[in-house]
Fold this sequence. Notes:
Blueprint: E1 19-23, H1 27-33, H2 38-59, E2 63-70, H3 78-101, E3 104-109, H4 117-130, E4 136-144, H5 146-158, H6 169-175, E5 186-189, E6 208-211, H7 221-232, H8 242-251
Parallel strand pairs: 1-2, 1-5, 2-4, 3-4, 5-6
Amino acid sequence: MIFKSSTTDIPEVRQVPRHIAIIMDGNGRWAKQRFMPRVAGHKRGVDTVREVVKACIERGVEQLTLFAFSSENWRRPEDEVTKLMELFVLALEREVDKLHKNGVRLRIVGDLARFGPRLNKLIADGEALTGNNTRLSLNIAANYGGRWDILQAINRLITDPDRNGPITEADIAQGLCLSDAPEPDLFIRTGGEKRISNFLLWQLAYTELYFTDTLWPDFDAVALDAAIDSYQKRERRFGRTSEQVTEAASKT
Ligand code: IPE
Ligand code: IPE
Ligand code: MG
């Protein structure tokens, strides 16, 4: 299914965001505040993921995209990277069956080539098991970078012998990792930083941005509702005037 692009069309606006994208930040600081090792924060972060997934299912969100590990996170100390990979393996081993029982389709988006065979096998098995589920698509961005995503789409296009003519927006959108999801309606970043950190650069063109100081391990369903509440008070104009938005809404 091809969804309406925010730049070449006017997408449908719903009360409940169809697609929420989250930068789960602040695990390290959460742990530091408690004089615990950083990995303790990451572990608690997995608990938050579980709670937020459940809340999204209950609220009727269709797509949830979580930034778990960026293409720049390899710059961290080797020990932390290793522990994060171990945690990723553990989380997949423990959670995939539960996700499947709850009707969640799991997908891992990013450059998986850099992960070891064990992790790749868990990812492939998890995606195969849950591939036909329709309640919620849970997209985990791992070794993901927005620039990488755009580049891999372009590189596939320019090496395709069957295509010619200029590259269109639709060509690129169809080549991105999340080509089968609508663009995010709501972006949330926890942990207080106000930046995108190379997350979904292409798709965030008209996404509503929400930043909270709450650290990811402290984020919960109530905090999610606060973000959705803020989203519902916004007027999404997509370049039009407020009057045009009101008029278009009265016709539907
Ligand atoms: C986010 O928390 C998790 C990952 C990037 C893997 P951080 O680890 O960035 O936590 P802070 O920003 O140092 O508090
Ligand atoms: C962004 O968080 C990536 C993830 C949450 C996975 P970072 O903590 O790595 O971002 P920066 O370095 O502060 O921008
Ligand atoms: Mg951080």
